[in-house]
Design a protein that fits this description.
Radius of gyration of chain A: 21 Å
Number of domains of chain A: 2
Structural class of chain B: mainly alpha
Distance between the termini of chain A: 21 Å
Largest sheet of chain B: 2 strands, antiparallel
Oligomer: heterodimer
Number of strands of chain A: 8
Strand order of the largest sheet of chain B: 1-2
Strand order of the largest sheet of chain A: 3-8-4-5-6-7
Strand content of chain A: 15-25%
Chain lengths: ~300, ~130
Amino acid sequence: MTEPLAFGMGSGLFYIQIPFLTVNNGPAISFRTMPGAIFKRTCKSLGVAVTRKKFSNPAAAEAFLDQKVKENVPVGCQVGVFHLSYFPKEYRFHFNAHNLIVFGEEDGRYLISDPVMEDVTSLSKEELSRVRFAQGPLAPKGHIYFPEKVRPITDDTIRKGIVTGIKRNVRDMLRIPGNFAGVDGIRHTSNHIRKWRDKLGLKKASLYLGQIVRMQEEIGTGGGGFRFLYGAFLEEAAAYMQDDRLSTVSEDFTKAGDMWRASAIKMAGVYKGRLTEQKDFEEIADMLLDVRMVEKEAFQKLSRMSLGK
Amino acid sequence: MKKEDLPQDPGALDQFTREVCYVKNQDGKYETALSRGWDVKKDALDSAWENVNERIEEARQAVANGEKSPVYYFMELKLMDLPVLSGYTGIFPFFIKRHLKPSVFKGLSDRKLEKYARAFDISVSELKNFKG
């Protein structure tokens, strides 16, 4: 099992600009499905039962965690990063959709594997309890999850998972209703960008663009990064399914990822104060429209393929 | 993205951890590589912090001029907004908004001050005696 495979089977690629919601005084945009949902779908297609729990009482949450640690079950926890002590200060915003794995206890400190960190880290009981009960949008409420039954995984289940994963992702990106999600969401944001300079003033508009870049590249592997990840998934899927058509579509996602990165460079020009004209905002908006076309065509190709059941 | 194009600009995470990226190798296949950071991202983060620091400074001025209560300053200092602060204190945003007025803040009970102080990670006297 590899990361791209899990991402693809869980239909991880997505785009949404959540209306009305602001995060750190900027627009809320996401480039992927909520990690919890990816995890859930992937486990489901692998036939792994996952138990998840939320708590209203921090003490109960801690007792439950201790119990699981004693049973030697590694558990995933959703946490907020603001109070996460081992994070560098620059990254500690009120961002609540971070996940880490607790896999043991040593000298009264939990041993933690964090996807951001290369090495194992640790947190004291108070510190962990604090981040598990962080507040604000998407508050984790002590959310904890762990696999219950693990069956041996055959190539056949993986193949089936790949097919459902692709189909679901096609549906999410092309046929989701509304104009602010899926590939149409990219157009929605692009239309917003055109208006930002006049509506918000140059300063706030450039902060908003900075926020998009941070959402795109920084938090998680980021938007461009997720496109590469999906490309890697399709490449692996092509090998599993013995289907070369998938690897050609994989190229399209690589291209989309590169285009996202190019647009980020352009946006950087704005928030660094090099580009200030309305024309530059128009160009950025056009770049996003191009990305939308590439992604839309790629998903349409996937949609037209008959991959079997 | 090709493997040789992967940016290696030391950023905030340098000396600390590196980032996993999926890149294409010479044979056009995907593989993982580690990046130390990217200037575009670093600048986005820096400009966000610049903005935060400006907001904190403005808040400090406002408290010094007697326009806002210390709650406002510490809310900005801890990067919070009304919903987040409401979550940590259990006080409804409507009331928090009132508590941002110096005149209302003066009459707050110790229990409420205690709640704010805990949310901000400071002592009650620090909160009460902050003059900007």
